[in-house]
Amino acid sequence: PGYGDSPPAGMLATQRDRAAFLQHVVQQLGLRRLVIVSPSMSGRFSLPFLLTHGEQLAGFVPIAPVGTREYTAVQYQQVQTPTLILYGDRDTGLGKQALQSLQHLPRHRVVVLPGAGHACYMDKPEDFHRALLRFLGQLQ
Fold first, then answer.
1. Engineering a disulfide at 46: which of 38, 96, 109, 130 sits with its beta carbon 3.0 to 4.6 angstroms away?
2. What is the DSSP secondary-structure string of 4-57?
3. With the C-alpha atoms ordered 73, 76, 80, 84, is the resulting torsion angle positive or negative?
4. One cellular component GO annotation, for this chain's record (predicted)?
5. What is the distance, to the nearest Å, from the Cα of residue 102 to the centroid of all Cα atoms in its chain?
6. What is the mean pLDDT of the segment spanning 116-131?
7. How many domains does the chain fold into?
8. For range 68-84, the mean pLDDT
9. Does 63 reside within a domain?
10. Has residue 6 been placed in a domain?
11. What CATH number has the domain bearing residue 93?
12. What's the whole-number mean pLDDT along residues 74-94?
């Protein structure tokens, strides 16, 4: 909500609101032990959800998400969700910035896709899917 062609997200102004919105979506769809793949702007929703409802996730795959600096190392360290941090080596801004914060997640792995930019899943789709499927195959 609030990005692309979706309607404005005025009522989702806070981290708590965005986490509650995503929680509502999960409940309405009846999802259990899901994996959130979160590129770029979706970090505004996925990160607050991860920090408040991470126990509902089987895994988390942030791809250079925005908003990582809004949380402390201590907050990240409390999350036990298996995480695959993915970004392209040509994403010299957000990819590396997000890694600085997300590396505090205790159960993380990092995959850097050579020759890929911010939208690494579009630049190197085969490499992206190979890393994602390997991660998904290791989840319980």
1. 38
2. TTSPP-GGG-SHHHHHHHHHHHHHHHT--SEEEEEEGGGHHHHHHHHHHHGGGE
3. negative
4. cytoplasm
5. 9
6. 97
7. 1
8. 97
9. yes
10. no
11. 3.40.50.1820
12. 96
